Amino acid sequence: MSVPNDTTCGATVQSGNSILPHNNKSNFICETDEGKTEEDLNMKSPDILQESQFPKTHSGENHKPTENQNNTNILQNLSGKNKWNKKFHLILDVLMVSLAFMVHFTAFIGTSNLQSSVNAAEGLGTTSLMTIYVGMSVSSIFLPVVLIKWLGCKWTLVLTMVAYIPYIVAQVYARFYTLIPAAFLVGMGAGPLWCVQGVYINTVAEVYSELVGLPTGTILARFFGIFFMLYQTSEIWGNLISSVVFSAAKPVTVNENSTTSIRVWETCGYNFCPGSQETEINPNLERPPEEDIFTIAGIYLACMVLACLMITFGVNPLKRYNKDGSSSSARVSGSQLLVVTIKLLGNFKLLLLIPLTLWMGIEQVFRGADYTAAYISCAWGISNIGYVLVCYGVTNSIASLVTGYLVKYTGRLLMVLSAMLIQIGITTILYVWTPDPVGGSAMFFVISGLWGVTDAVWLVQISV
Length: 464
What we know:
mainly alpha, 4 strands
């Protein structure tokens, strides 16, 4: 671009339909490559940065700031009102993404927690959960880069949320040839969904930190704390919906004189054996009526549609803040990203995170499949799964917010070690505890609540 009068065209920040200019009162007109002026393009207040403003290098040439430096200078020189408006929109975007995830995963978590009990025949439910994570492992490597490059972060969020919908629909006619393909589609959407969510919040936190002059890491901890606080409440609403529907249709009572109650230690908990004769005749494990499953599927389907609409109409694209989340993805293919990921395995500190990451996946699947079937459903009935896991959602949501602020006083290592000790205690209890609601149902909720605390600590600290 040629610039007359020894000037250069400066950067501007796009904010909605308005352009926020740099604090420069100059009225120079910058020519474009096509010979047109910015004035011709209706640029009423072009941002002009004179070369004399740039420090000279040792060779005597003027050193021009990078685009990121220009953006930072513009953000820091915004007027008080404009800065407040931009901060408001940034926080609103974080809240809208968080609320959309909460509504979306209200449906998915509520559905997945029922799989090992409602679709227990021939292991259909647990097989579908396994298929989801297989698909997620593949999609996390190859799809995020491509989708961000083509669609941008906002529309990638919408598309990947839509990928979950067939899994909910398949619940009304759960067969291997309907549920497994739908589960694989969920996995293909889940990888990009979580990657793009991280990119979006990281980018918004970066812009916000430039506005307020605080370290990006501090803002990230707060934003992810808000996100996981709202996201984890999906455990509350999803499980509450399932339990209310099932309990209203068929209230479950515990008969102290029943064979199941007297011999519960033989068939449930550590001794649970899917497919055994004792399990087959256990009335607590009977599949709920089809009309109840249709009702729950309809409610969950509405939640997912609402979440897609919230992202579509309530979230700003990153281009609003002169960001698109695709600056690096335009130069890196999926195969190149896989190579980079493999090379990172040479980093000793990253290798130390692998066991914790694997454990988090294992314990979450165990909680969603085995704890719900072997302990809650077997001993207390399918209708009580939601009530018990609501406790998990409450403690997880609170701990997600609190740990984001406590970590600056305790340090990350102490926080993670505390969660590890709690998890060891939970696992030990599951080995020795007899899940008998007649003798006392409080332990179901205690285990669930402590589990929520440990998950919150690991999710927030690893994400940051």
